[in-house]
Amino acid sequence: MTNHKRFVVTGLALTALATVAACSGGGGNTQTATQSGSAAEPVTINVHTFGGGENFGYDEAVKKWNAEHPNIQIKYQNLTDRFEDVYLPQLLQRLQAGAGAGDVVGIDEGAMGLMAARPQFFTDLSQYGLDSRKADFPAAKWEAGLNADGKLFALGTDMGGMTMCYRKDLFEKAGLPTDREEVGKLWPDWNAFFETGKKFEAAKTGAKFMDGPNTIYNVILFQEAPKNGNVAYFDKSNQLILEKNPAIKTSFDWVQKFSQAGLTAKLQAWSPAWDKAIKGGGFATMGCPSWMLGVIEGKAGESNKGNWDVAAVPGGSGNWGGSWLAVPKQSKHPKEAAEVLNYLTGKEGHVAAFKEAGAFPSSIPAQQDTEVSGLKNAYFNDAPTGQIFSASVANLQPVFFGEKHAQVKTAVEKVLEGMDQGAVKYDEAWSKFVEAGVKAAG
Amino acid sequence: MTLQLAPPRQGSRRQAPPPRRMSRFDLKGVPYLLVSPYYALFAIFGVFPLGYTLWLSLHDWELAGDKTFTGLDNYAALVTDAAFWNAVINTLGMFALATVPQLVLALMLANALNKRLKGRLLLRLGVLLPLVTSVVAVAVIFSQLYSRDYGLFNWILSWFGVEPVVWQNEKWSSWLAISTMVDWRWTGYNAIILLAAMQTIPRDLYEAAALDGASARRQFWQITVPMLRPTLVFVVFISTIGGMTLFAEPVMFEGNPMMTGGTTGQYQTVAMFIVKEGFRDFQMGYAAAAAWLLFVLILLGTMINYGFTRRIRGAR
């Protein structure tokens, strides 16, 4: 008994010792950090982003800045290629812990609602005069950067725009036109797209007309949301309006119609099977925001160069995806961080990123730059992507993202996948869809 | 005894104390000091997280959001959450589907390897080989074998005119697929442990039984299995804990780590449920409560299995 007690005491003492050591170590670190921030030495601004391939495309822009600004050096790190399951949980933990986040951090569209609901973690950028940038951005991009307190906390980087990618070789096999102008004319609206799909299936090429439920659902949802009060799953007071918003029901109905008619290859987006089908010609069309071109090029590979092409999307303009940059409050150099943010989201930063990573600029001056509007994509048969994407974002309306947008999105799309693959019956799918969304909004 | 109780000589009393105190510390204190690093680390990385998880489970806390004390609300919500019970059933189902054939197979394999065979060492090493591969590699390869369009299993099935099976789509098919991954990796490991135990069973027991005219099968059931009881208990414990915390295989099988375990949660395990709640939906309190319920589940599972294996009686 006594032995046992003594052992516990020893253990506790050692633990306490270790803790003290750990604490003093931490204290030392903070001290060095403060010292390096003094006026004599250059300030280091950590820029943290995410994304595969060329991700944010800041290598050139950062090199240029560092050469011109000896007093403010950017340290650019792309932390991971996965946003939802790696970057976001890590960023939230670092915000909560009050240390470890970058001075400038990238945030994806899906989490903007979540971050806007946590104004306590971000610097108000209007303190540093960045509210003067309003005219540079479409309303859609600007308004998502305002948080729950109405303060400006993030400025836009790229945006998706919206086009339709198609397999030229499969269209030829099915006896459909292959020229991108003519293909665009095949489908002025989604009904015409549906009819084209039936024609394609009748030709029995061995491939399906479209990939699966996820991409088409997002494409239609972001076209419909602006027609229904600029909201998706949540209204502006963060109440779930899944059942009430006609935009969602319309998108759902279209997915169901495509699936029931057997036009989909029943593939879940971002799964290994989906990757294989992009490469192997498993399906002929897919909704394509600008960043999706890079995805297709990466997954289909060099051997498919020229097989994929890009045409106008049915149903007019829309946007899917895009990111923002923000300055966490824990940053020790918010002023310098805001300067860097201003540069990266300015015309120069946008154009450099577009050239490097193909990320279509959300900044209007950058969109109008001839380097952007004149760009052609060699992989997609020299398609004038600059022009096509500029047209797709003309008159773009903002869409409000609720705090739990990402969770609801994941949950309801799972039901769509289940419906497409047969795990959820078609006539039960809508009620399951609503049920899943309500639960995720919990 | 009495002799030893004789009073010590006077002189020794004065000289003894200083060295005695030192040697007492040497004897009683130092061992604790030597083992303490482990316990210190265990306290930091074992006890503290356990306690903190318990504390968290009593709160409604969204990651990087407000934290409010809610008592047992999370637990109350969990026991009425159909998704949680779905995960529990999936976990138990896959555990049964994977472990029962695995242990039977391991026992048979061990028995076979215990015989005089040519190239015995090579065969014994061979069954351990799957263990050397990483779980993720196993899961990636198996997921490809089970893929709908270009998978090996669907290709073989197509010889018999069977339509391609979407293995992820149904509970039975996904459970089966995941169970085979688990078995492929762990059967050999269990077989080797059982084999080691079999080799400690005295040969003369078998000789005596053979003299009495017991068949090989009877020897196996009446001597081998009862003598293996302590090892079987260990193997069952390890399998239970492994089965209850099943994670990597179903995650890789899903292909895209959103932790939903299929479109309608066909193969979402409790471990996946916890990660989904905590790091996809950021409900830390809820996830912590689920983690504690998983702990209870493992305790219960181990106790039931212990009772089960204890019933293996000695030969009569």
Brief summary:
Chain A is of the alpha/beta class and 442 residues long. Chain A has helices spanning 2-36, 59-68, 83-97, 112-116, 139-143, 168-173, 180-186, 190-202, 213-224, 246-260, 272-280, 290-300, 334-344, 347-357, 364-368, 370-373, 385-392, 405-421, 426-441; strands at 43-50, 72-80, 104-108, 154-159, 163-167, 208-210, 283-288, 308-311, 322-326.
Descriptive notes:
The complex is a heterodimer of chains A (442) and B (316). By secondary structure, chain A is an alpha/beta fold. Chain A folds into two domains: 42-159 and 322-372, D-Maltodextrin-Binding Protein, domain 2 (3-Layer(aba) Sandwich); 163-321 and 381-441, D-Maltodextrin-Binding Protein, domain 2 (3-Layer(aba) Sandwich). Chain A is built from 19 helices and nine strands. Chain B is an all-alpha fold. Chain B has a domain at 73-140 and 171-310: MetI-like fold. Chain B has helices at 10-15, 17-57, 73-79, 82-113, 120-132, 135-145, 152-159, 171-198, 203-211, 216-227, 229-244, 248-254, 270-280, 284-310, and strands at 59-61, 67-69. In chain B, helix 6 (135-145) packs across helix 8 (171-198) and helix 11 packs antiparallel against helix 14. Chain B starts with 9 loop residues before the first helix and ends in a 6-residue tail after the last helix. The model of chain B has no long low-confidence stretch (mean pLDDT 88). The interface between A and B is large, with 42 and 39 residues.
